[in-house]
Structure formats: structure tokens, C-alpha cells
Amino acid sequence: MAAKAKRKISNFFVWIILGLLIVALAGFGVSGFGGNVRSVAAVGESEVDVNLYARALQRDISQLTQARGDTVTFAEAQSLGLDRAILQGLLAQAALDESARLAGLSVGDGTVSEQILSLPNFIGADGTFDRQAYQFALENSGMSVAQFEQSIRNDMARNLLQGAVVAGVRPQPAFVDAIYSYVAERRAFTYAVLGEADLTEPVATPDDAAVRAYYDAHPEEFTAPELRRITYAILTPDMLIDSVELDEDALRVLYDERSSQYNRPAMRMVDRLGFADEAAAAEAKRAIDAGETTFDALVAERGLTPSDVDLNTVTQAQLDGAGAEVFALQEPGVVGPLPSSIGPALFQVNAILMEQVTPFEEALPELREELANQRARRLIEDEIEPLDDLLAGGATIEELAAESEMELGQVDWTGMESEGAAGYGAFQAVAAQVRADDFPEIETLEDGGIFALRLDEIVPPTLRPFEDVRTEAESGARAEAIKAALRTRAEEIKASVDGGEDFPALGVTAFTNAGVTRNDFLEDLPPELLPSLFEMEPGDVSLIEGDDTLVLVRLDQIRPADLTEETAVAVRERLNGEIAEAMAQDLLGQFAQSVQSEAGITVNDAALNAVHTQLP
């Protein structure tokens, strides 16, 4: 397992160097930071290269941008601590380099050469090392051959050190078994969900005193949230569409631009399998027709994957000489042998897409709406600067609406509104933050519209008058009375079950569960029930109270994890590997910290700032 961990760590550092080299070619270069700036930090005499840090930071920001689906700036990444995390990781790597340097660990030129020659990114079409691709990648990265080869040498020396540090690291079998036994243990139980129907007597309607007492005891239920009274002016493309003039020529131009959307030729989803000669292809077609084999089986026999033979969606013209016969099929099937760019081939049609023709007249309503919306958005864009000038000159929201096509409106905004202007995310963002002394500004909406708003008043959370919420208070008081009665009834049932009686004998509908683990989810039951089960002993009965339910549960059986099951063996093996890897990483982390403490860390703030200022 230690060897496995060592291999994973080795592969990680080899590929991170190659990845940073190849992926980030268009990013930073040495020249971007000045000829004298080489490192952003160092552990002892082992430096963290400035370009390595820059590329790692750029890569992680790019990954975060892709994950969020929105551009992440460096300032945002820095607020998340991304720059510090990257620097700490590279300092840990530098600490291992420093330890390897002090120990005199190194590898020879032959080993370095062998490693570089095996990197797949530098393997040409003929399967051999492509020196031109190698030199081109290094030149574009701003790294010399000597620098890259030294980085590989350092990496391999570091791997030797890591292997020595983590050798023999593995968890004790009893530790893995204990974790699996804890996670996989099951509890079988019987439960009854108690409702009003389980009461022996109906609950009386609460009197005025009880309703008032409930109102007084639960002010949070009857308190209106903070309210922000806002006056706004808004203009959206929809408000201008009816007044936009459209001519037929412009609509036809848009129709032509959308021709691929409205008019699609007949197409087929096709797989193609080539053969050495026509006789072999004909024999394969005969075997398929006779039911002796299938097209997919022939693909598998060749050691090919479906993607290797998939032509995707094609037109008849794209199939050249084979197109007519392939498109002559009226349903999915196999045709051939037919000529192709790879020789005689069989073609399997997986789906038939018929020709689609949408005349201009049919597309006109959609075209008219799209073009009108485009022009309305442009009209609104032209209005932004003049309207901003009006506000800058002291115009009020009311005057803004009076002197333009913007519509005036008011909203009592609590953050829960979703109609009209309050339905826009941009409006909500401004409404939540605007202050009474803020000057109104023209803001843009998601659909190309614009708005400006003013905060007139903030009404703090207010307890609504009793008479206004009397009906709600009556419902709450009755629900509380029912729950209190159910609690008493549940205690009676629990006492009987504790005494040996079963649920059915007590007139209660009960359900059984054959077994749950700690990680299961119990639908329609209080979340408190599951952890309670694992604190009980067989025969114990508990009353679990959720937000609006009462559940009586009896633990029937504890089923220990079966360590001999095939699934258990596989899970424990995977768990053993994960724990071993975590232990190795922890050990390497502690080792790196020790080296950093002894050798000392230096940080070049000027170099860090130089990197940061080049990021958007």
C-alpha cells in the first residue's frame, strides 16, 4: 500500500509540472515579471518559481470560474484564500526539494531522459518522441530545455524522498474493520406515527384566552418582516415592443441568418466499420443478415469502441458515394459494402432525422418577436446616458418617469416578492442594499431593461395586531393543544409497549423497517429519529418529536456488519487505500513543516504582487 501511495504521489508531481507547462502556455511568461525576478518564495535554498506560482493561480481561478459558471476575479479568489493555499502547497513541495538537496538525492541524466521520452504529450503520430513538439512547448512557456530537465530531475529526486518518508505507512486492519463496522451496522425497528386520529378523545376548540396566550407566547409567528418602501422607475424591452417598427426586409435578413434553425436537411446518425477488402465486408454483411453476429459485435471483436466508428450526424452529401444507399434505408439498419475514405465499409444507421422546412411565413411571429426585442434593447441602451445625466442633474425618480418612457412604480419590499420589477435579480440586489441617502442611478436588468430606485422608508419588523392574525393564532393554538394531547397519549402507549404489549394491540398502526445504517435517509420521519436509534438498545422504546409529528419507535434488533460479505471486502479494501493515502499525505505534511521550521521560509512580496497585478 505504501508503494501504491508512492506511485500516486510521484504521478501527481510529474503531471502537475507537465500540466502547468502545456496548459498555461498562453498565460504568464518570465518576461512579465522582469529578468531579476525568479521566485516568489523559498525554503532554505529551494525556490518556488514565479511562473509556477502564476500558472497554478491562473489554473485554479479558471477552474473556479468553470465550476461557478461566472467569471471569478483575482480579488474574489484572494478573498477565498486561493492564493495562500497555492503558495502553501508550493512551499510544501519546496520543503521536500530542500530536504532532498540536503540529503544529496539526485538522479542521472539517463533517468531524466527516459522520463521525458515517455511523456505522452511529446509522442508523435509515429509513436516516437517528437523533438519539435518538445522544443515548441518549452519555447512558448518561456522555459529553457535545461530548466525543464532540471525540474524533472528535482521532481524525481523528490519522489525518492517521498517514497522513503511514506514507506510502510498503512492502517492497522483492526482500524479499518472498526470504521466499516461502525458505518455498516444496521438497526431494525418498529415505529408508529401518531396523529389526531390516535387520540381517545377529540381536542376541544381553544377558547379566546388560549388563543390569546398562544399569540403572546409565539410573537415570531406573527411578526411582519422588515419592510423597505421603494419608489422606482423601470423600462423593459417588452414595454417598447409594440412601438417598434419592423420592415419585411429586416425580418427576411434575420430569417436567412437563422436558416440552419428553420431549415434542416435530412440527416442520419451513422456508424461506419471499414474492412481490408470488399470480400471481407460482404462476408460480414452476410453474417449480420443471417443473425450470426451484429455490427456492434464486429466492432468489439476488432478491439474498437463505439466512438471509434461513430460518424455522428451526417447529411447524404457528407457520405459521398455511400450516401444514396445509406439514405435509402427507411428504418435503422446496416447497409453495405459501400465505398468510403477508409475502403469498403459497412454503415449502421442508428437514427433517421427527416428534413425540416419552416417557411418564412411560419417563422414570422418568432422572428418578429426576436427582432423587436433586439431593437427595443438598442433603444433602451441609447437612453441610458441621457437618463443618467438627468439623475446627475438632480432629477427625482418621479421626474425621470415623467420625462421618459420609464414607468413609475412603488413596492413594499421584504425580499420575498417575485412579481413585476421585484422579480428581477438585479432589482433585488440593489433593493437589498440601497440606503436612504443613496443617489438613484440607472441600473441594467437581465433582459436588457433599465431601472432606478429610491429608498423612501425602512419599516422595522412589527408585531401584527392580534385581531389581524386571529385566525392564524386559532390554528396555532389548536395544533399546540393537539400535540400536547398526543404527547400524553404517546406516553401512555409507550408505557404499555414497555410493559410488553405490541402496537397493534393498542390500536395503533405500526410499520417495520428491516434495517438502516447511520447514513440512510428516512423519508417522512423526523431527522432526529435516526441518531436516536443508534443510541438505543434492543427493546428500548423512545418518543421522537419532530416539528409537526410525534413518532413512537422501538428498536427490535442490532445487526452487526458482516465483514465476510463480498461487498464488505471490496469496501474495506478501498477504505484501506484511502486511509493509507490520507496517512501518507499527513505524514508528508508534517515532514514538510519540520523542514520549513529548520531551513526557514522567505517570501518575496514584490514578486507576489507582480503576479497578482497581472490577473484580472
Briefly characterize the structure.
The protein has 616 residues and is α+β, with helices and mostly antiparallel strands.
Which short descriptors sum up this protein?
616 residues, alpha+beta, Triger factor/SurA peptide-binding fold, 4 domains, 4-stranded antiparallel β-sheet, 23 helices, 19 strands, 50% helix, 17% strand, disordered N terminus
Please describe what this structure looks like:
With 616 residues, the chain is α+β, with helices and mostly antiparallel strands. The protein folds into four domains: 2-168 and 591-613, Triger factor/SurA peptide-binding fold (Orthogonal Bundle); 186-219 and 470-559, no CATH class; 227-243 and 373-458; 266-354, Roll (Chitinase A, domain 3). The protein is 50% helix and 17% strand. The strands form six sheets. It has a four-stranded antiparallel beta sheet with strand order 16-3-18-17. A four-stranded antiparallel beta sheet has the order 12-5-14-13. Strand 13 and strand 14 form a beta hairpin. Helix 4 crosses helix 22 (566-599) and helix 11 (248-257) packs across helix 17. The protein starts with a helix and ends with a helix.
- For this structure, the CATH topology of the largest domain is Triger factor/SurA peptide-binding fold
> How are the strands of the biggest sheet laid out side by side?
16-3-18-17
Count of distinct structural domains: 4
- State which percent range the strand residues make up: 15-25%
- Share of helix, binned: 40-55%
* Average pLDDT: 83
Classification by helices and strands: alpha+beta
